[in-house]
Each structure stands twice: as structure tokens, then as C-alpha cells.
Specification:
The chain has about 400 residues and is α/β, with parallel strands linked by helices. Helices cover about 45% and strands about 15% of the residues.
Length: about 400
């Protein structure tokens, strides 16, 4: 008799994709044990230095040496998963984070039709290539090849799970994926329970009586840091002195010098508790981006009971419905952002009122619901009944 095992790509470390596959795998592991339905095995991603020949061959073929593009390639995914080994008594469910099905996984399924392949995705390559600087510079032949391989992987997968409806719509329109194959199951916050408990101890105690905002993310341009700095610069000196903007991720050299600006630089996994303490002690989490989906940091702010101020990106307003969030229309320009900042400074009760009125349970921000969907699919080899009843509309519930 065979046993079911979920192989989760990228889930052995909290650093790969900010820990998203790791936290999904842990929630899925708990579901599998509770129901006695399946086990979970982590598949470790590799660093470029661990597969140097693979990287060099890819550079020659792609006519570029941009590591960021290599990490988005089928070649990289193949390199990370070529050592997957499935025992004979196992029926595998491969959960692949990203846009490609590894060659090793496809070869296995050809020999074992009972195997299942699930792609879990927060963006398509077309989304990335249209918005992120590193992807905009993709050489045309490489772009064509990457998107073609992505389309093939979508077609060969058994099921596709996505964060929100925007991604699903893109797959249907531009990749020709059948709607019934794609399920919007959301995402969770990448925080350990221990960190959540500790965060309350730091609330406000580590800061003064100024208004504290915080942005988390490696790319200051993509996260809207420069846009926010421009809006703060339009305030009076007295108003600027009454606030603090903390930016976690970019190095100090990447940002301008301002009296109100604090930088933490890159935060390693070992310093995660310090980052969470900073986030919990903030008055407002910020994302004024025009090129992003809803990143994990926004969920984390909300779980830490910190209101968020985010730009009106596709899918965001729906995903944040019921939570203490201010949705900003960036088309109104810098003056509108400056006016909003003055409201925060002059009417601090606004955020308190928002927290009181928007009380959607944070239990919806854990990884339990995505794990429940995937766990039931693995357990029964079918879509869970409540998702079948509500279809894609479940994305915001």
C-alpha cells in the first residue's frame, strides 16, 4: 500500500522567498499529521554558487549574466530539484513554488501517472517582466523562451493555486489556462507563533512619541520608498520632525539622507525577531508601490495589529477588505500623499478608529486556510467542497 507525501519546493529555509514556502509547508505538515493523511518533505533550493556550471551554461545560452533572471528560469528550478528521490511506496504530490515544473518531476510523472503536480504562484512572468527593473531588461529571445516554458508548465500541472484574482485573470487571458484549473486560495503571514507573542512586549516601548511609519522590502523603488520621501519632504520642518520613517531591506547607500529616515539594512533570518519588534512598534505599515502584488510584509503588519497604508494595486482592495487598511490612489500625485500624511499627524485618532471598525479576524491571515485547501486536495485527490461551492470568490474570505 502506498502512502501520500507532499514534496514542497523551497520550504527548508526561511530565507527563500521570505520564508513563504517554509511557512506553507509547516501548516501543511500540521494538517497532514492531524488527519493522518500524508507526510511533508522539504525540497531545498540551491544558491548559485552550489550550481556554478549550471549557471555558467545558462549565461551563455541566455546572453546575460543577471542572477535575478537566472533565479526565475526553468534551468534554475531544474538545478534545484534534480536530486529529488521518491521511494517506490510513495504517491507524491509535488507543490512547486513558481512558474515552472522541474524536468525531474515531469519525468517522474510520465512513469507514475498517479503523481500530482501543483503550482503555487503569486505572479506570472509577464507580470514580473512588466513591472520589475531586473525583468524589464530581459533579452527578447530569453523572454520568449521563459514565457513559453511557463505556459507549458501551466498546461502540464494538475492544479494551480494563486494568491489573488489578478493572477488568475492573467493566466486565463494571456496563457490560455482553463479557469477550472486555477484556484484563488490566498496566502498567510510569514511569522512564527513565538515571534507573534514576543511582539506585544515591544509595542511602543522601543520608540518615542513620534509618528512611526515603516516599509519592509529589498527594492526601495518598487516598494515606494522614494515616493514617500518626496511626500514627506513637502511637509513643514516641524511636521517632518514629528515623524519617523523606518526602511528595512535596502542598504543605507541606496537611500537619501534625511533627519526623519532610519534604515536597518538587510535583515537576516537570525535577526527576524528584531525586525518583527520594529514592525510591531510602528504606527503604520506602508506600501506605496505601483509594481507589486500584496507582499508578505503587509500581512505581517496586520497580524501584528498595525494598520497599513497601501497603493490601490489590482487585487489589493478586495484582499484587504475588512482589515485596518487605507487604500491610496497614486494617480492623485505627491500632493495627495502629503495631505494624507498631515491627516495622520493631526488626527491620530483616525488610525485608532480604523482598528476599531475593521476587525476581520487575523486567523484568516495564517497559512492554515491555504494549507487546508491543499491538504484536502492531497487527501481526497479533489477540490474541497467549500471551494467548489464558492469558486474564485473565496480569495477575499
Amino acid at each position: 500500500m502506498t502512502r501520500k507525501v507532499a514534496y514542497v519546493y523551497g520550504s527548508r529555509t526561511k530565507t527563500f522567498l521570505s520564508g513563504t514556502p517554509y511557512y506553507l509547508a509547516r501548516a501543511l505538515e500540521a494538517f497532514g499529521k492531524k488527519n493522518g493523511a500524508f507526510d511533508v518533505i522539504d525540497v531545498m533550493p540551491k544558491r548559485t554558487r552550489e550550481i556554478p556550471l549550471t549557471y555558467l551554461r545558462w549565461c551563455l545560452e541566455a546572453v546575460t549574466n543577471r542572477i535575478s533572471l537566472f533565479l526565475l528560469s526553468q534551468t534554475y528550478t531544474n538545478g534545484c530539484t534534480r536530486n529529488i528521490s521518491v521511494p517506490k511506496d510513495v504517491t507524491p504530490y509535488f507543490i512547486i513554488w513558481g512558474q515552472y515544473i522541474p524536468s525531474k518531476v515531469l519525468a517522474f510523472r510520465r512513469k507514475h501517472p498517479g503523481a500530482r503536480i501543483i503550482l503555487y504562484n503569486d505572479a506570472t512572468l509577464l507580470d514580473l517582466m512588466e513591472t520589475f527593473d531586473y525583468a524589464l531588461q530581459t533579452p527578447p529571445p530569453l523572454r520568449v523562451r521563459m514565457v513559453r516554458n511557463e505556459k507549458i508548465s501551466y498546461a502540464q500541472s494538475d492544479l494551480i493555486a494563486v494568491f489573488h484574482e489578478k493572477v488568475r485573470a492573467r493566466m486565463i487571458k494571456d496563457y490560455g489556462v482553463p479557469p477550472e484549473k486555477i484556484w484563488v486560495i490566498g496566502r498567510g503571514a510569514n511569522l512564527d507563533n513565538a515571534l507573534l507573542r514576543q511582539s506585544g512586549e515591544h509595542k511602543r516601548s522601543v520608540h518615542d512619541n513620534k509618528f512611526h511609519m515603516m516599509i519592509v522590502g529589498r527594492s526601495p523603488k518598487r516598494k515606494g520608498v522614494f515616493r514617500l520621501i518626496e511626500a514627506i519632504d513637502a511637509l513643514t520642518p516641524g511636521e517632518q520632525d514629528s515623524l519617523v520613517l523606518t526602511v528595512a531591506g535596502p542598504s543605507e547607500s541606496e537611500l537619501p539622507t534625511r533627519p526623519y529616515l532610519r534604515t536597518t539594512g538587510f535583515v537576516s533570518a537570525d535577526e527576524r525577531d528584531l525586525l518583527v519588534a520594529e514592525m510591531a512598534a510602528s504606527d503604520l505599515g506602508v506600501l506605496l508601490s505601483d509594481a507589486d502584488s500584496l507582499p508578505g510584509s503587509i500581512w505581517e503588519f496586520l497580524v501584528l495589529k498595525v494598520p497599513v497604508w497601501v497603493s490601490n494595486l489590482p487585487g489589493i482592495a478586495t484582499a484587504l477588505e475588512g482589515y485596518p487598511a487605507i487604500i491610496e490612489d497614486l494617480s492623485q500625485g505627491t500632493s495627495a500623499l502629503t495631505a494624507r500624511l498631515r491627516t495622520f499627524l493631526r488626527q491620530p485618532q483616525m488610525l485608532s478608529k480604523l482598528r476599531t471598525e475593521k476587525t476581520k479576524s487575523i486567523r484568516f491571515l495564517t497559512w492554515n486556510r491555504p494549507a487546508e485547501f491543499l491538504g484536502e486536495y492531497i487527501r481526497t485527490d479533489s477540490i474541497p467542497a467549500k471551494w467548489r461551492d464558492h469558486g474564485a470568490e473565496v480569495c477575499s474570505r
